[in-house]
């Protein structure tokens, strides 16, 4: 069986995890945690990065940090993972879903302004497949209406928009290091990028159960106390050690994924030109990270037939999100702004192909061969 995904392995993970175990510092903010955070601060050019147990935790931190209150409204696409919405619903917010663009599956930036009301507090762009949303438009709207921008860049590590790292453009960015992502912290993990320096001190407090424990360990206060709302949002240093092995090879992993992505694109372009399916679109100002490769079939029936065909060849492919606005919780906690022109119909056409760092050339040839046979 060729899996849909396999966590990246570089070879140094076990050694670094043993080093973390020997250090006697397995909880959060150990040596590997600080090393990883500094790496992202330098690589993404942001003032503060804080590792978290997951991207879900990072999004929850962001909702706390911008003081989301019951009755507030938060704008986002419906085509996203449930954590994007849950983080704000937990604070009592109402989710306002906006349609996606059919070319990138990102939120349609031209529809956001019509969804803004006096209750709107934040816009949450989701960089689907590591392809950037139109951040210039989104940031201009945020400035015009005095809104926060929380980037859900779970899939966007090592991607950029006009040369600026995804996650570093809005007021706060959220990364994922789940095992399905390009880089993993041993299965789970996340990071919160604090791009507004005025939010850093409170972000540290929220992450440390609402205490000023971080200041205490830096010698800035003689004792730490409960200061604010918060929770336990620290990644263990054991996970950070696994992640550090990945980051040492970040460019190698990125280049390999981009090569695999291009192999798919080149091999399948002739069939796409014949109108058999649609290939991913990359905006001119976006440098993507080859997080995924997907096809859009004619309709859901065609997509399901292809998934079955590949499964019979022992190749696992998957479709992606069921739009949140059509789910029971989405109907309860949110509403769709405007018309659902593309979110549902485009999501029903999309199928994701196997894509991961350790996918071999031979395995990819088998996948491509099976695809060519299906469409013949």
UniProtKB/TrEMBL annotation:
> SUPFAM superfamilies from the entry?
PLP-dependent transferases (SSF53383)
User: What residues make up the catalytic site?
Assistant: 181
N6-(pyridoxal phosphate)lysine PTM sites in chain numbering: 181
Q: What class of enzyme is it?
A: transferase
- Required cofactors, per record? pyridoxal 5'-phosphate
Concerning PANTHER family, the annotation shows: DTDP-4-AMINO-4,6-DIDEOXYGALACTOSE TRANSAMINASE, TRANSAMINASE
**Known role:** Catalyzes the synthesis of dTDP-4-amino-4,6-dideoxy-D-galactose (dTDP-Fuc4N) from dTDP-4-keto-6-deoxy-D-glucose (dTDP-D-Glc4O) and L-glutamate.
**What is the protein named?**
dTDP-4-amino-4,6-dideoxygalactose transaminase
Organism encoding this protein = Rosenbergiella nectarea
């Amino acid at each position: 069986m060729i899996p849909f995904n396999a966590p990246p392995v570089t070879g140094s993970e076990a050694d670094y995890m043993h080093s973390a175990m020997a250090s006697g510092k397995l909880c959060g903010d150990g040596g590997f945690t600080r090393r990883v955070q500094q790496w992202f601060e330098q690589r993404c050019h942001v003032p503060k990065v804080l590792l978290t147990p997951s991207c879900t935790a990072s999004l929850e931190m962001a909702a706390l940090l911008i003081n989301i209150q019951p009755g507030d409204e938060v704008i986002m696409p419906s085509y996203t993972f449930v954590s994007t919405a849950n983080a704000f619903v937990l604070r009592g917010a109402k989710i306002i879903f906006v349609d996606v663009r059919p070319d990138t599956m990102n939120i349609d930036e031209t529809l956001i302004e019509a969804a803004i009301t006096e209750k709107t507090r934040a816009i949450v762009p989701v960089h689907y497949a590591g392809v950037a949303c139109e951040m210039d438009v989104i940031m201009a709207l945020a400035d015009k209406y005095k809104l926060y921008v929380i980037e859900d860049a779970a899939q966007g590590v090592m991607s950029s928009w006009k040369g600026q790292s995804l996650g570093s453009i809005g007021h706060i960015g959220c990364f994922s290091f789940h095992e399905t992502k390009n880089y993993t912290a041993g299965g789970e993990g996340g990071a919160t990028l604090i791009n507004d320096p005025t939010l850093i001190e409170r972000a540290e407090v929220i992450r440390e159960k609402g205490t000023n424990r971080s200041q205490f360990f830096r010698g800035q206060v003689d004792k730490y106390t409960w200061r604010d709302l918060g929770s336990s949002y620290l990644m263990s240093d054991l996970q950070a050690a696994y992640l550090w092995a990945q980051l040492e090879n970040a460019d190698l992993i990125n280049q390999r994924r981009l090569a695999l992505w291009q192999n798919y694109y080149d091999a399948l372009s002739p069939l796409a030109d014949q109108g058999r399916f649609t290939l991913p679109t990359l905006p001119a100002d976006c440098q993507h990270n080859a997080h995924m490769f997907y096809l859009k079939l004619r309709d859901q029936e065609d997509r399901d037939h292809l998934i079955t065909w590949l499964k019979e060849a022992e190749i696992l492919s998957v479709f992606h999100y069921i739009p949140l606005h059509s789910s029971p919780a989405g109907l309860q906690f949110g509403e769709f702004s405007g018309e659902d022109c593309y979110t549902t119909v485009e999501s029903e056409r999309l199928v994701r192909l196997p894509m991961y760092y350790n996918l071999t050339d031979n395995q990819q040839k088998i996948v491509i061969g099976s695809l060519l046979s299906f469409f013949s």
